[in-house]
Amino acid sequence: MPTGIVLIVAVAVVVVVGLVAAIAVKRRRRARLRDCFGPEYERAVEATGSRRAAEQELDARERRFADLEIKPVPGEVREQYARRWMRIQEEFVDRPEAAVRDADELVTTLMRDRGYPDEGHEQRLRDLSVRHGRVLEDYRAALQVRALSTGKSATTEQLRGAMTHYRTLFDDLLADGEPTGTRRT
After folding, report:
1. Longest dimension (CA), the chain
2. In sequence order, what are the residues at sequence separation of 6 or more whose Cβ sits closer than 8 angstroms to the Cβ of residue 32?
3. How far is Cα 62 from Cα 126, in angstroms, rounded to an integer?
4. Could you please report the per-residue DSSP string of 109-139?
5. How far apart are CA 168 and CA 142, in angstroms?
6. Residue 131 to residue 40: CA distance in whole angstroms
7. Among 18, 40, 42, 138, which is least packed by CB within 10 angstroms?
8. Which residues of the chain have pLDDT under 70?
9. Distance between CA atoms of 28 and 41, rounded to whole angstroms?
10. Which H or E run includes 6?
C-alpha cells in the first residue's frame, strides 16, 4: 500500500476514535447531570432552550456550589430543628396560614445555618438544585402556596400540601451532612 493511503486511513481512524470518545464523554456527562439534578435537569433544558446551554448552566452551578461552605447540621441542632418543626405542624391545626409562613421561615433559617447564601430567591433555587434537585419541585410548589396564603387566597388543602412540600425539603436539608467547600478537580 502506498504511504499516502496508509496515512489517510490512520488519520481517519484517529478522527473516528476521537469522535466516538467525545460522544461517550458527552453521554456520561449528561447522565451524571441528570442523576445529580433530577427533574431540575429538564427544567434547565426548557429554560435555556438547549441541552448544551442547560448543561453549561448546571456545570456552573456545581462550580459555584463547590466554593460554598455548606455545613452539616450537628446532632443536637438537628434535634432542635426537629422539635421546632413539630411545633409548627401542631400550629397548623388552629392557624394553617401562620404554620405555612413559619415553615417557610424555618426552612430559610435552616438553609442559612447550613451556609446557603441569601442572594435572592432565584440564586437560592440554583444553589439548592446542586444537592437537592430532586426535591426542588416540592419547594417551588410550597413557595407558590405561601404566596397565595399571604393574600388569604390559599385553601386549607393547598396549605396542607405546602406543609408537606416544605417538610420534604426540610428533611432533605437536615439529612444532608456532607461538608463542602473543597473544590472538586
Report:
1. 89
2. none
3. 9
4. HHHHHHT---S-HHHHHHHHHHHHGGGHHHH
5. 10
6. 11
7. 18
8. 1, 177-185
9. 14
10. helix 3-37
> What would the pLDDT profile of 89-136 be if each residue is shown by its tens digit?
999 999 999 999 999 999 999 999 999 998 988 899 999 999 998 899
Dist. CA 177–CA 72, nearest whole Å = 4
What the block records as the C-alpha cell of 64 is 459555584
Distances (CA, A) of 37 to 31, 55, 76, 82, 179: 10, 10, 30, 26, 18
Q: Do residues 170 and 89 make contact, with C-beta atoms less than 8 angstroms apart? A: no
How far does the chain reach from its first CA to its final CA, in angstroms?
46
